[in-house]
Amino acid sequence: MQSIAVIVATAIAPETAAKVILRGQSYTTEMLHWIRTGEGMEGSVNLFLPNHLLHYGIFCILCIVTLSSMALIFGTWMLNYMNFYVAELVKVSAKPWLAAILGWYPWSLMRIIGFIATGVALAALGLNLVTRIRGEVPKSPFRKTYMLIGIGFVIADIVVKAVLAPIWQKLLLSALG
Q1: Could you list the residue ranges that cross the membrane (predicted)?
Q2: Is residue 101 part of a domain?
Q3: Are 33 and 40 contacting, i.e. CB atoms less than 8 angstroms apart?
Q4: What is the mean pLDDT of the chain?
Q5: Does the model's pTM come out above 0.85?
Q6: How many domains does the chain divide into?
Q7: Residue 64 CA, distance from chain mean position
Q8: What is the distance between the alpha carbons of residues 164 and 145, in angstroms, rounded to a whole number?
C-alpha cells in the first residue's frame, strides 16, 4: 500500500515528491544513467556490494537498538526512493507498461523479504537484551530461523543482482525506447 501511495503521489505531484522524498531524484538520475549506459552502481558488484552491506549493517543495528522501530523508518526511506524512481521510470518510458513491470527488480524484492525477516529476528534479540538489562528472564525467543531466512534472502539479492542486472538493464532500455 505504501509503495502504491508513493508511486501515485509521485505521478500526480512530481515536483513536490522530489522535494520530500529523500534521495528520490538522485537515485532516479543514477538509475536512468545505468539503464541508458550500463554504467553505475547497479551493474557492478564492486560498486553495489559495499553499499548493500552498509545498508544491511545499519538496518541490523537499528533493529537491535530500537527494537526495529527506527529500522522501519530506514526501510521506508529506501522504499520511498525506489518507488519515486519507478514512478519516474514509467513516466519517461516509451513502453510504460513494460517499465511498470520491470521497475521493481526481483533482487530488490528479495532484499525486502530479507530485511523483514531480519527485522523480526533482531527485534526479538533487542527485546531480550533490554529484558536482561532489567534483570528479568527474556520471554521473546530469538528467532534463529528468521535470521537465517533474512541473511539467505540478502545473499540471494546480491547473487541475483550480480547475474540479472546486465540482462535487466537491456530490458529496461527497451522499455525506455
Answers
A1: 53-77, 113-133, 145-168
A2: yes
A3: yes
A4: 95
A5: yes
A6: 1
A7: 19
A8: 27
Structural domain of 69: 2-34+46-176
Q: What is the dihedral of CA 84, 86, 92, 93, to 10 degrees?
A: 180
Cell (9 digits) for 11: 505521478
Nearest to 59 by CA among 69, 49, 45, 50: 69
- 24 within domain boundaries: yes
Structural contact between residues 111 and 155, judged by C-beta atoms closer than 8 angstroms:
no
pLDDT tens for each residue of 93-143 = 999 999 999 999 999 999 999 999 999 999 999 999 888 899 998 887 788
By the 10 Å C-beta count (0-12 exposed, 13-18 middle, 19+ buried), 57 is classed as: exposed
Q: Give the Cα separation of 177 and 85 in Å (integer).
A: 17
Confidence of residue 44 (pLDDT cuts 50, 70, 90): very high
CA 104 to chain centre: 10
Let me know if residue 55 belongs to a domain: yes
